[in-house]
Fold this protein.
Amino acid sequence: MCGIMGYAGPRPAAPILIDGLRRLEYRGYDSAGVAVFDGRRLVVRKAEGKLARLAQLLDDDPVPGTTGIGHTRWATHGVPSDQNAHPHTDCAGKIVVVPNPIDIQTVRAKAAEPLADPWPIAQERRVLVSVGRLVKLKGLDSLIRSMPLLDANVSLAIVGNGPERSSLEGLAEDCGVRNRVHFLGLQPNPWQFMAQADIFVLPSLTEGLPRVIGEAMALGLPIVASDCSPSLGEYLGEEEAGLIVHPGDPSALAAAITRLLDDGAMRRQLGQRGLSRIATFDLARSVEALEEAIRPCLAPQGRRRKL
């Protein structure tokens, strides 16, 4: 998992980017970097390790500019190092590309690890899982409000933490489903818990490119997602790997979830299609495509192919 932060405005970008990345540290990372446009060119600062090291680097050598991006990442391209930290730039330093592949093999290996704590949901129950920071934009209140509309044998596991946790716990109590909604907190290995579920649910009100959907697809899970992002189709296609509902609509969520729970063949079909679709996001395939794209730029000057 990684964190991505962007800023364009009147204030110096670098301190805002660092502050935003600190808020995303819960996602885990091994290196970090920023790219800021100083009015003439992109200036990149990157560092292996924790954000404090990058922040110190920027204190020692400030980067002017009011537009930029920041990125924390796990070692998806080479070992953790200053050079391999994101963001990366194009050959001329004019374009910054933040890749977002799915490390499918690692996700599956982590999911197969035994749970450190006992699974809190009885084996005979149907399980929904949702993963993310507990903030209003994640739409988890709609998912909790959908629970009374579902069969009493359905439980929900929420993996993540955030400022809305106590409010969401109170909402579950008010809806009469507190015993069916399990708040598992921040977990270093969320894929273990995802692998226990029958359906993955993303009820967000808005998203960029919701990477967690790709990770759920890599585990063969059928998806129910709100129409929270124009990029949702990159993962799900035209509902080829999951069902899409209107954001903020508990009744629509309940209807889609019930439809899948009642139709085992559809669940299996969506899961299989998801496995096929997510293969195009595989880390190795993405690296190969990236190498293919940049290889012409590395050819001798006289033999370079125009792109």
Summary: The domain at 107-281 is CATH 3.40.50.2000 (Rossmann fold). The longest helix spans residues 283-298. Residues 46 and 83 are 7 Å apart (CA to CA). The chain has two domains: 3-99, 107-281.
